[in-house]
Design brief:
It is found in: Endomembrane system. By secondary structure, this protein is α+β, with helices and mostly antiparallel strands. The chain has ten helices and twelve strands.
Amino acid sequence: MAKRLYEVWKGKNKFIFRGRLIFGPDAKSLIITLLLIIVPVIIFCTNVARNLFDETSGNIAGYAILMVTVVFTIYVLLLLLLTSARDPGIVPRNLHPPTEEICYDSSASIDVGRQTPTPRLPPTKEVIVNGVPVRVKYCITCQLYRPPRCSHCSVCDNCVERFDHHCPWVGQCIGMRNYRSFFLFISSSTILCIFIFGISALNIKFLTNDYGTVWKAIKESPLSVVLMVYCFIFLWFVGGLTCFHLYLIGTNQTTYETFRYRGVERPQVYDRGCLNNFREVFCSKIKPSRNNFHAYVQENERGFTRGMNSEGYIGNLDGNRREKVEDDREIGGDLLKISQRREAEDA
């Protein structure tokens, strides 16, 4: 019976709706993130917003505060879903690994001072990006040379294009296809924190005018103070993260590149100027996913996927590959012996 791609996928992702939504292996952390957003909003709407609604005697301002809170919260949750349930830019595993090249390996020599030719792939190769040579690495798990700015996420076990980082709060990698929604999520969360903090402070001010002292106002609405403290603490996290990613967008860097190459002088290959960098993130069209997880896979693709081990070799072809490697080594050894014999005859 034919199976769909998500059923035989070798990454650690979790799928729902028959592969239409893809999450990271730590998708359960989304529950915590949802509670951190929804619970304070419910407290705000049922206490602070209601007090302000009574304070304004049903004025339009009371309705506006409640409606803005609900609509903006839905917007934040939608951005969270777009970030965590979307393919971040996963590069499919290679069904046809590149051919091994004959390289000389000094660690596997027959005689002292002699090198044995052994078939292996170079660990890196250079590609030209914007006229600058960039070194890309070979991924033994996905059996491909990673595209520029691509990295293998050890949490999801996938190569992700323009890999930024793996975010446990959204339970997903942040990459080329969901970076925009991720930034909008954290920046919108920052605005929501500021809004709830300001309205809660306004509620305390109105209660102070009614009861005469701040202490009595706090006793009348302690949840307003709790929300102010909560938003102040949370604002340091999401606000700082928003500012950091504003810097990354302006310089066209990723979190991974910033911390990996910290203190290392390297050319800014991808920086096209602040304005163009922002246009690239917010105005460019999001590329379609390379994977159709809902589609059926062919029998040979299923065999490859099932047989793939953690080293990136095909299980049912592993014996043949080893035989090929051994044959190549024997051929190399024979060539070396013939060369030694000719040198001895010449001498």
